[in-house]
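User: Okay, second chain of the day. Same drill as before: sequence in, structure tokens out.
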Amino acid sequence: MKSLRLALTEQVRQLPGVASVAVASRPLIRGSGIKMTVVPQGQRATPADFLNTSTNSVTPGYFETMGLRLLAGRDLTPADEPAKNTTTKVVVNQAFAAKLFSGLDPVGRRFGNSSSPGAYEIAGVVSDSKYRSLREPMTPTFYIVWSDGAIQPMQLEVRARTAAVSHSTGTAGARRTRSGAAIYRNRSDVR
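Assistant: Same drill. Structure tokens below.
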């Protein structure tokens, strides 16, 4: 039996004009999210590290759909699902790489919290984006593969194809993509 997420994304992907579809557990610019205290493997957290990082569960293709550039390493794949591995592969943003691994190549480095010091391994780095608010500074963020078995809110992200407006000479413009979000909330997220 297909999961709700898989069935929904397959149906939306078939709609005219849809370039890509992805799912996230937390919508961007909503004013809230999930924060964790993490440090590089082998280091101990200090009071200054308290809740220093945001996290989001996303499906493969999320970064392309949201217009985030892959800067190093690779994107997440279904094989990176946490339940399938002892060390969870993640993608981090530039702010995360700069805060925890300044001056170092972050790909392949591990981090975690006090109870799981090396639980996460960086597979890739993506460009920064605002997370909770347009007013906040770039927040260190790491992304983990969405797990269909977990009970979590579902945010559907859609990137649509649009035709460019013809300019004054009357010639047709090239096709471009533009990001837009359509929201689906499962029962656990309805207020």
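The chain is about 10% helix and 30% strand.

User: Thanks, on to the next one.
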